[in-house]
Amino acid sequence: MEMIVYFLTLVVVLLYSIFLFRSLEYIKPTDSGNSISFDAPITLIIPFRNEENNLPELLSCIDRLNINSLNFSVLIVNDHSEDESCRIVSDWVSKTDINAELLNLTSGFGKKEAIKKAVDHSRHGSLIITTDADCTFGPDWLKSMVSKFVGHENTKLIVGPVWMNQQGGMLENFQTYEFAALQGVTMSTLAIGNPVMCNAANLLFEKSVYLSALDEGMKMELVSGDDIFLMQYIHNKYGAEAIAYNFDPHSIVNTEPLNNFKQFYHQRIRWAGKWKTGVQPIGVRLSGGLIFLMYVLLLISLILIVLNFVFYKSLIVLLSLMIKTVAEVVFLKRAFSFFGKSFYFSRILLLAVLYPLYSVFFGMLSLFKGFSWKDRKADNSGVWEMGNPEFSNFDRK
């Protein structure tokens, strides 16, 4: 029985490694060009809650955008903030030369409701681009994203790259390397027409498509999924060709890692929960299931070796770990290169050792544990807890 587990682990690791090596050809930067002619209104939507420390830098980035003759406006939506965020945005709106407006959620709460309110408020026929309040970007970000959309009639969603800035702590470095891996998977799976994930920190889509998704696929009752549920709806309705990834480095959005383990814990449970509530194509579910199986088998193999060490059996487990690590090092190095960042081999070793346990832990935990987000609690199904008195006066539609 042990040998079956060891050889099955090796086979699954080989399949996983082949996927990573095949993905390398897709993770290449391209210049989409910034010379565009586009007359339709473009609306940047940014929801926020208690982001007083991040908003000033974001607003400065908006002021520096190269918008020229674009019909551009900004809607920033306050989700019941309790700090100085509203004052910061209000002051900026009164001073900036950009057509900008501060909106306040009066009924409902959460990021999904904030985006919905802004989309409803946006002009007819708008092209919507979203980012988060803790993000920054370069002056050509908007033009790069729009240029990827212009001239492609069948395209309904543009997914842009997101980089998590590197910082000194172990937790922060872990997040950077994990996030780079997720971005690499996002790029490659979108390129082959089998999208797995995307990030609302850098998305562009048509207003009309979003409004139709509200009726059929956005799962507004759930806390998370404003990005992946929209992508899944578009993929199911229009096909893989309707979703494109922007490989232009000018379109990169930067965000910061969490520096608090409690926040990290709750965020990962929230992320893991998207998979159990989403409606992924069968290929995506099989791929995700295979990777989860690999981590489970690796853990079982390591436990068996520790309990009953046999040299030749340990070599099979070691070979599996070596193949997996080499494939991940090559894959991550390519992802870091795409973002123009330095890659440190020693840090991937930590990720390779911890990730099987980490993935299984949060994958299983999300099945029966809820989470907190922005000082609010959700149950294990991803729905806001009804009993929280903070929300008793809100419309919970």
UniProtKB/TrEMBL annotation:
A Pfam family it matches: Glycos_transf_2
UniProt EC number: 2.4.-.-
UniProt keyword annotations, A-Z: Glycosyltransferase, Membrane, Transferase, Transmembrane, Transmembrane helix
UniProt keyword Chaperone present: no
Annotated InterPro entries: Glyco_trans_2-like, Nucleotide-diphossugar_trans
Any GO molecular function: glycosyltransferase activity
Domain Glycosyltransferase 2-like: 44-155
TM segment ranges: 286-307, 314-332, 344-368
Enzyme class: transferase
Superkingdom assignment: Bacteria
Keyword Membrane: yes
Family under the similarity heading: Belongs to the glycosyltransferase 2 family.
Protein name according to UniProt: Glycosyltransferase
Organism of provenance: Mangrovivirga halotolerans
